[in-house]
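Page 47, continued from p. 46.
Same chain as before, 249 aa.
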Amino acid sequence: MKIKASITGVILITAIMLSSCLSTDFETFSEEELANTLWTSPICGMPAEGCYGKDGYFLAEDGSLLYINIFSMTGDRWEIDGDQLVLYSHTEGYPEPSPVSYPLVRRDGVPAIRPVSGEEEQLPPAAEKLDPRVPEGRWLLRNMLNPENHEVNPETPVFLEIRTEEQGGYFLFGSGGVNTFRGNLQLEDFSWSTGPLMSTMMAGPGLEYEDLVMRNMDRVSRYILLEDFLFLYDHKELIMVLGKDHSPS
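Result:
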């Protein structure tokens, strides 16, 4: 009886130890935990002057995937599968969404991409909770993504200026390069919507480019504000990047 009791005790202790090991190796994560988190890493090499120095992605609460400074792909959605972060994306040449999985770990209690061998010194990105902020001030166009190939050299800089209204809401003023426009702007969480924009009707050599600017402005439905850079999206597709204008007014 004593021998049987000892064997049972050993088996029980072994089972507890194995269970502990397994729970550490296969920790699970949830969509709720990772909703509205930013995952970025420094860009390799020296970023172009006036450009955001990181790239990565934003995991929106509604399951949408928004890329930061990654222009060759459009995000579709994200999901959690146990300890795997699964990102679905597509390109112009391959329009069907395809998944890529990244194993997750906790780094100082924060969800992070598990580093592969040799990557320990330059750690992969970790989750950073992002709260929506109002992009007040003047913003200069840095990049505009579009299939059309237009010269990015209008007569005057393309800019947006966002101000808070005393009675509530926001006012949008800007220039497409030739004409100025203005109208009301609605911001809620990370969503962006404008009413009809009134515009001047001047002629100039930059009208073709301005037409592209205004068509893209009509498409904007989401935004992300990171440091001094404003990223504007057509739901999931990054279409415009603007930088904060710090010049004296």
